[in-house]
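User: Structure please.
Assistant: Input sequence and predicted structure:
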Amino acid sequence: MSSEKDIPKSDKPTPKTPEVKTTDADKNFISKGLDNAKESISSSIESTKDSISKEITETKESISKTVDSGVKKTKSFFRKVLIYSSILLVLAGIGYMLWANWTYSEGTRTGYMMKISKKGYVFKTYEGQLNLGGLQEDNSSVLGNVWSFSLKEDYLSKKLEEMEGKKVQLRYKEINKAMPWQGETNYYVYDVVEK
């Protein structure tokens, strides 16, 4: 057996890395190259930084404009909704008042004048009752047939006060719905005739 010691070594010497001798010119050249690379990288970083900053600024402005236009549109929308709702409410109120005061029927009622009074907490209105005669059933009880009405004119209340207990004929108009300042009933007497 042979050992490594027995293996003959080649006669060729192992190559040595050549020794590089740098001169001052070479050092200056390398230093300038490094400086140029540093400047190039630095300017590249600065230009990238500037472009990113511009993009961010442009994006902020774009978002700000979009938000501002959205806010303006929203304000405009709600302003229109408020205006149209107000107009609709006013028209609905006018329509309701016209419907409520619409004369549903006109007629006469004859009976004995029972009472006339001015009553109400806030709105004082003239209210009266006329006994029509006969009886009226209400659940399990029997009541006199009394008709309640309202007056709009003061002179009629004085005239009816003088006719209490007498037989009278009242001309009236029935409206759909009485407002609190008009009276308690939907029946408004506008003329009185003694019978």
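The mean pLDDT is 84.
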